[in-house]
């Protein structure tokens, strides 16, 4: 017999407990799956950042070689009249070569001289020209100047070229390595911050190439995009959510807006090529056209985010304002829109962050051109950061690899900053109803 203290468990209770146990186990498994998914995503993101960072951080410094430069008046200004036109046309490359010959007087062979001259970048001559044009009084004097090294020397110093490789398999020769070692022993090799990367435009020579032109081009393009997409997108969201009557036409417009948000970006590039370039004859490779195309691509995102933000405002706000005698327009613009603006701004920033990283539509409208000059306006030829990455990734020189990664780091920095701004706006201004 069972003791009185023992209680008989109801079969129904047993089934309920067993079911709860299974549900709790399934919930724990689901949480583990979610944590595993997040962990994999974080690991993949870290691998991406580490890979890009390890290849690109060296681009933020640039190898320079310190030489005694004699600004020979017979080369720079034989007439002695100090005319700017004559000074600008002087053979500054000859001044650099003379400095190298003076540093290594034992080099006599013509072939060896060519290799010696290859230690210094062709851009060093332009730096000397700028110095003379700024201060002609240095003509006839000797100055100790840090000249920018060639890309091969830069890659060797940074360890991207293995000096133990056979001479025929590397771009820099044994004699050049010996000269570089002599310069390093004399303390004439330095690696200061690469200010050219953030102050110059594109160049065929990797050691002279910079991203400032692409940054300015991206700024002008985003300026046009924001100026077009934000007011029109917000106006469309307000009309569709607050004023449009519920009809088949409104439903059709809503479906099309949602579909446009999923259209591949290259389709917008084809639209820009066919309409803005071929039909309206707008300037090719200009931020104006790029901004218009990206604005069309950003419209749906802003409209959808704007409608969601307007819909999140409680009806009681509208009813209270209407009860105090406000018109429909006053209700929307004086009460609803200010409360919905944080959500609208968040959607706008997210849409702009997507636009700043787009490449395909800009390639279709010709923004893949090689642009050296810094754009001065929205109609000047320009490039943007994603296109600059595309161009440098296809370049054969090893030095462009690190600049590609460095530009990607800058672009990721912009994207992270814009998304962080969206999160901060939402946290600061969002209201819980």
Kindly summarize this structure in a few lines:
The protein is mainly α and 433 residues long. The protein has helices at residues 11-56, 73-76, 84-88, 92-103, 110-117, 123-134, 151-157, 174-185, 212-243, 248-260, 265-277, 287-312, 315-323, 328-356, 360-364, 385-393, 399-429, and strands spanning 64-70, 142-148, 189-190.
Q: What does it look like?
A:
There is one protein chain. With 433 residues, the protein is mainly alpha-helical. It is 63% helix and 4% strand. Helix 1 (11-56) crosses helix 17 and helix 14 (328-356) packs antiparallel against helix 17.
Write the layout of secondary structure elements.
Blueprint: H1 11-56, E1 64-70, H2 73-76, H3 84-88, H4 92-103, H5 110-117, H6 123-134, E2 142-148, H7 151-157, H8 174-185, E3 189-190, H9 212-243, H10 248-260, H11 265-277, H12 287-312, H13 315-323, H14 328-356, H15 360-364, H16 385-393, H17 399-429
Helix pairs in contact: 1-17, 4-6, 9-12, 9-14, 11-12, 12-14, 13-14, 14-17, 16-17
Query: How many structural domains are formed by the residues?
Result: 2
C-alpha Rg (nearest Å): 32 Å
CATH architecture of the largest domain: Orthogonal Bundle
User: Helix segment count?
Assistant: 17
Shape: elongated
Q: What proportion of the residues form beta strands (DSSP E)?
A: under 5%
Name the CATH superfamily classification of the largest domain.
MetI-like
CATH class of the largest domain equals: Mainly Alpha
Structure characteristics:
MetI-like fold, mainly alpha, elongated, 63% helix, 2 domains, 433 residues
